[in-house]
Design brief:
Blueprint: H1 2-9, E1 17-24, H2 27-42, E2 48-51, H3 53-59, E3 67-76, H4 79-92, E4 103-107, E5 112-116, E6 120-123, E7 126-128, H5 140-143, E8 147-156, H6 161-167, E9 173-176, E10 182-186, E11 192-200, H7 208-219, E12 228-238, E13 245-250, E14 253-257, H8 263-278, H9 283-289, H10 299-320
Parallel strand pairs: 1-9, 7-14
Antiparallel strand pairs: 1-3, 2-3, 4-5, 5-6, 8-11, 8-12, 9-10, 10-11, 13-14
């Protein structure tokens, strides 16, 4: 809702489309989606519909799924264009954005002082929101309880309108329910954008296409002759609980991070909560800040290999539907 209101208020051109499908690959996952639907409906999301095997086959041109959950409260956007549109709105409203000016030191106080390579900023309130790109050593209290991870994306050459509609009939975004999930959508120019896989510790993979193309063909074998035009990787910040980490580190200094792959939506909620708190209403911020922030098993040194071992276990459970 926050994103939709920003798009409307500031006339942001970011290819917003409503509707997202959670796709179940086995009966256990489908039962989990039915439980998820009941929970969400308890808290007000009535825009949900369970999909059986025939329903999801009409929506997604793949034989990989036994059913799913359609969430019309969700949707998909071009996230870079959303960020650029919001940045332009900040500037129009009198805000200032300084790029290519990484923080190298923080001195907390009244005011806080953040030093960069060529200058410094004094701030009554300080919010640390570097997420997966926050460097080690800037404040280890913030970085100690999370782990940067990399996810890979490829984008195909443009498809014909007929090809595109045969893959995703109503232009919803789709993600499966596996522990290491795949996710995909159509772009505004009818390319298939497909992402998946996790590189724990955010190491740059040698060949992104080699990692992702087999996933595409497992979902859509009819695309075996389609070319890949673009490929990239980016980092998200994983937490032990998979819940975001909001908190206060000094009297007038705060942090928000650890969206665990859901940063586009959750960071918008985070911004709203921090603004409420600065204005004097901390109730919703405190609800998140009170969640326990568990350290990653093994710390920053050993968390990546240990998490990878755990992922193997859960991936096997997904494969066998247990």
């Amino acid at each position: 809702d926050i994103i939709r209101s920003r798009i409307k208020e500031y006339d942001i051109k970011c290819d917003y489309r409503p509707g997202g499908i959670f796709a179940a690959m086995n009966k256990k996952q489908l039962n989990g989606l039915a439980e998820q639907k009941r929970n969400w409906e308890r808290y007000g999301n009535r825009n949900l519909k369970m999909l059986d095997a025939a329903d999801i086959r009409r929506e997604v041109g793949s034989d990989a799924y036994v059913g799913g959950l359609l969430d019309m409260q969700g949707g998909h956007v071009h996230p870079l264009n959303l960020a650029l549109g919001e940045a332009a709105a900040i500037v129009r409203l009198g805000g200032k954005i300084y790029e290519q000016s990484a923080a190298v030191e923080i001195k907390y106080g009244e005011p806080n002082v953040v030093r960069t390579a060529k200058g410094q900023v004094r701030a009554k309130y300080l919010l640390i929101a570097g997420n997966a790109y926050l460097p080690q050593g800037l404040d280890n209290r913030v970085t100690a309880k999370s782990m940067p991870c990399g996810s890979q994306i490829v984008v195909t050459e443009p498809l014909t309108e007929k090809q595109a509609r045969s893959l995703i009939t109503n232009n919803y975004c789709v993600e499966d329910c596996n522990y290491l999930l795949d996710y995909y959508r159509l772009t505004a120019d009818n390319r298939l954008l497909y992402g998946g896989g996790v590189v724990y510790g955010a190491r740059e993979p040698d060949d992104i296409e080699t990692l992702i193309r087999p996933k595409i063909l497992k979902t859509f074998p009819q695309l075996k002759d389609v070319k890949i035009d673009y490929r990239w990787t980016g980092n998200f910040l994983l937490t032990m609980s998979r819940m975001p980490q909001f908190g206060r580190i000094e009297k007038n200094a705060y942090y928000m991070q650890g969206y665990s792959g859901h940063g586009v939506t959750c960071s918008h909620l985070a911004g709203k909560l921090i603004s409420e708190m600065i204005r004097g209403d901390a109730e919703r911020f405190d609800a998140f800040a009170s969640l326990p922030h568990m350290p990653m098993l093994g710390g920053r040194t050993f968390s990546a290999p240990l998490t990878a071992l755990g992922a193997v276990y859960y991936s096997l459970r997904d494969r066998f539907g247990i």
